[in-house]
Design goal:
393 residues; alpha/beta; Aspartate Aminotransferase, domain 1; Aspartate Aminotransferase, domain 2; 2 domains; 7-stranded mixed sheet; 3-stranded antiparallel sheet; 13 helices
């Protein structure tokens, strides 16, 4: 064996992702990209706001000697302060610059957090459906991902969550707005979850952290708001990125924020400063930190995504799909008319429609449809969805 057994197993488990992209590339080469309706990848299709582009150009023009040098592993002080000031308002908590670690995206942030808190065999509980990479992030640092089902509308099942917590539980990881469902966990359920974790932490004599992965926080519709995690539970940690709200996923820019009320606030600060370095990130990109310090709160026009959501929901409802209309993110997660979601995704592929089987996200019998695509892709795909669904009615 030339590669690690763990990595080999991970490759096998994620082979469906590779296969999906290979098949999509073949279809586009055969039929032309404009004739393939690709709803597979959550890659924002909107341009960054002009203010971001202006700030980037201005920052590049002003960079001088030493501006590309090493910095504190937590990030540039002014960038950390800018994020702390913005989050203090958004999260309703008094954050300091020292509570912030600038990271290489939210993925980098999650790895920084998990490296900092997990011992070998510790469990990380997450509600399913869940983002497919969480398994890898937990195992990267000796942890074990333990999934808990959600309710039929993808809201939190607190009884199932309570039953899953045990002596090895170190953290609960939530993603709201959620990938792949677009669901947002309301404040009441988060308050109840916070109370549950307080009780379990006391019973088990160990701190159970609540981690929130929030790259879609600003991608919300119909006046819905994403509650503040810091108002719901003291020992909470938030990580997010600018990938989705500013449409810059390739820049790998994000942050970790520690609750000011966390019992071991200073220990967490020190741990995350170290893990950002030893994981090889060292620090988030210097140029993007300088830009982000000036554009906090910026977001693309989410009404474009909302139009796509509404067009898809209307068309798929008419076709006979069962859908929970999502209040956030840019994903639909409808039920499939047969249990074998991979077979249904293959049937859609014959109509040149690319979706992702829900079983890959921990909830079989569904497909994920990503609607951060051109409006024509949405409109022109509806007849194909209808034809496939008619085969099973």
């Amino acid at each position: 064996m030339t590669i690690s057994k763990q990595v080999e197993d991970s490759i096998v488990r994620s082979s469906w992702i590779r296969k999906m992209f290979e098949q999509g590339a073949q279809l586009k080469a055969q039929h032309g990209p404009e004739n393939v309706f690709d709803f597979s990848l959550g890659n924002p299709n909107l341009p960054p706001p002009e203010k971001f582009s202006e700030t980037l150009r201005d920052t590049v023009n002003k960079i001088g000697f030493g501006d590309h040098a090493y910095m504190p592993n937590t990030g540039l002080p002014n960038a950390c302060q800018a994020v702390a000031d913005y989050l203090s308002k958004e999260q309703g908590a008094d954050l300091a610059a020292a509570d912030i670690v600038m990271t290489c995206g939210a993925a980098g942030g999650l790895n920084v957090i998990l490296k900092g808190i997990l011992d070998s065999g510790d469990e990380v509980i997450t509600p399913a459906p869940f983002f497919v990479e969480y398994n890898f992030y937990a195992s990267n640092h000796g942890g074990v991902l333990k999934t808990v089902p959600t309710n039929s509308d993808f809201t939190l099942d607190l009884e199932a969550m309570a039953a899953a917590i045990g002596p090895k539980t170190k953290a609960v990881l939530i993603n709201s707005p959620n990938n792949p469902t677009g669901q947002i966990y309301d404040k009441e359920s988060l308050m109840q979850l916070g109370q549950l974790l307080s009780e379990k932490s006391a019973q088990l004599s160990r701190t159970i952290y609540l981690i929130s992965d929030e790259p879609y926080r600003k991608i919300v519709y119909d006046g819905v708001e994403v509650p503040s995690l810091f108002e719901c539970y003291a020992d909470s940690i938030v990580t997010s990125s600018y990938s989705k709200d500013i449409s810059i996923p390739g820049e790998r820019m994000g942050y970790v924020a520690i609750s000011p009320a966390a019992q071991y606030r200073m220990d967490l600060r020190n741990a995350f400063a170290l893990t950002n370095r030893v994981l090889g990130f060292v620090n988030a990109p210097a140029l993007m930190q300088r830009v982000m310090a000036q554009v906090q709160g910026l977001c693309v026009d989410v009404d474009v995504y909302k139009r796509n959501r509404d067009l898809l929901c209307d068309g798929l409802n008419e076709a006979g799909f069962e859908i929970q209309k999502p209040p956030g993110a840019f994903y639909l997660f409808p039920k499939t008319p047969i249990e074998d979601d991979a077979a249904f995704a293959n049937a859609l592929q014959k109509e040149l429609i690319l979706t992702v089987p829900g079983s890959g996200f921990g909830r079989a019998g569904h497909i994920r449809i990503t609607y951060c695509v051109d409006e024509k892709t949405v409109i022109n795909s509806i007849p194909g969805f209808k034809r496939v669904m008619a085969q099973y009615r």
